């Protein structure tokens, strides 16, 4: 009897809808652009070009790197803020630029919180403080002594007024009790070129871009920021060991998308970027350049950005640094 009822009900059961399938992942159907808001050769550019081939493989679409330098990174950031929120245009940037901008400018062409959506942080790379070999300082003590005795002979190259490496250099100079000459350039690559040529003789810059200059002797390493010494330069002390400020300063590279990008697309980018960074060869290349993978997702990136905006804002206001 029960068996006959079950058989009789079989057609009705077959006509019921199946359980809802897992939602399809957001699709990519045309070329994806990584906007780097700086000139080629800086940390963001190097990282974007390391990631692009693997992203192309994973996503099944061409991933191209576009350099949009100008206005201390704001030109490229604005281009992404105004792009279609469909996941095909992403911003790869030193997130410190976004953390300092609200305090440096009375007006921005975009609202960082409203118009840019964090996907994930990518890497942290400490700063290397390095000097041109023509500067007669072999270590941190020698550098401070020389700077005090020759205030007009220390020229600090940095990637722009109000950039995190400029503010870090400003904090260090105040701590040392010296007044060097601060020389702004249009991005980290230009600042590195100036320091490497001797046009400037001191630089504080991300390890990812600066490490090769120290390794080949173009620059002489003096100290590093971050929580530990860099493996390629075990003799270089950390800022913390020296009792210097800005111990955790450095370059924090992250990816953001246009505001209004659906949460599912942000989650998809977070997933893809984590998988890309986990590739052994990519992780090795980042490590060789002094970087540490810090992919922690949208919420952690947003919290970091809010915290850093407040911290850098205090320093900027205390030193009356403005760009308009």
TrEMBL record:
Record keywords: Signal
CDD domains listed in its UniProt record: PBP2_Bug_TTT
InterPro entries, sorted: BUG, Bug_dom1
Pfam families for this protein: TctC
Gene3D superfamilies the record matches: Bordetella uptake gene, domain 1 (3.40.190.150), Periplasmic binding protein-like II (3.40.190.10)
Signal peptide: 1-24
Family: Belongs to the UPF0065 (bug) family.
Entries under PANTHER family matching the protein: BLR1237 PROTEIN, TRICARBOXYLATE-BINDING PROTEIN
Protein name: Tripartite tricarboxylate transporter substrate binding protein
Source species of the chain: Belnapia mucosa
């Amino acid at each position: 009897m029960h068996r006959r009822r079950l058989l009789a009900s079989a057609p009705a059961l077959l006509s019921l809808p199946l359980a809802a399938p897992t939602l399809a992942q957001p699709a990519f159907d045309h070329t994806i652009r990584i906007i780097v808001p700086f000139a080629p050769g800086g940390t963001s550019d190097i990282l974007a070009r390391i990631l692009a081939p693997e992203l192309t493989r994973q996503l099944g679409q061409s991933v191209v790197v576009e350099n949009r330098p100008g206005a201390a990174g704001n030109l490229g950031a604005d281009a992404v803020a105004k792009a279609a929120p469909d996941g095909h245009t992403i911003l790869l940037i030193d997130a410190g630029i976004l953390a300092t901008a609200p305090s440096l400018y009375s007006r921005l062409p975009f609202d960082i919180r409203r118009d840019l959506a964090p996907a994930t942080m990518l890497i942290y790379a400490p700063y290397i403080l390095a000097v041109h070999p023509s500067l007669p300082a072999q270590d941190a003590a020698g550098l401070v002594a020389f700077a005090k005795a020759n205030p007009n002979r220390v020229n600090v190259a940095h990637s722009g007024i109000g950039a995190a490496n400029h503010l870090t250099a400003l904090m260090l100079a105040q701590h040392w009790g010296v007044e060097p000459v601060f020389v702004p350039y249009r991005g980290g690559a230009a600042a590195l070129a100036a320091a490497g040529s001797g046009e400037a003789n001191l630089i504080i810059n991300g390890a990812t871009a600066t490490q090769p200059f120290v390794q080949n002797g173009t620059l002489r390493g003096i100290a590093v920021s971050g929580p530990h010494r860099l493996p390629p330069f075990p003799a270089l002390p950390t800022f913390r060991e020296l009792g210097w400020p800005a111990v955790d300063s450095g370059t924090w590279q992250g990816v953001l998308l246009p505001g209004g990008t659906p949460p599912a697309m942000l989650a998809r980018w977070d997933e893809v970027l984590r998988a890309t960074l986990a590739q052994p060869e990519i992780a090795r290349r980042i490590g060789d350049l002094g970087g540490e993978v810090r992919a922690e997702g949208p919420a952690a990136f947003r919290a970091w950005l809010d915290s850093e905006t407040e911290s850098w804002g205090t320093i900027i206001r205390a030193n009356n640094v403005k760009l308009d």
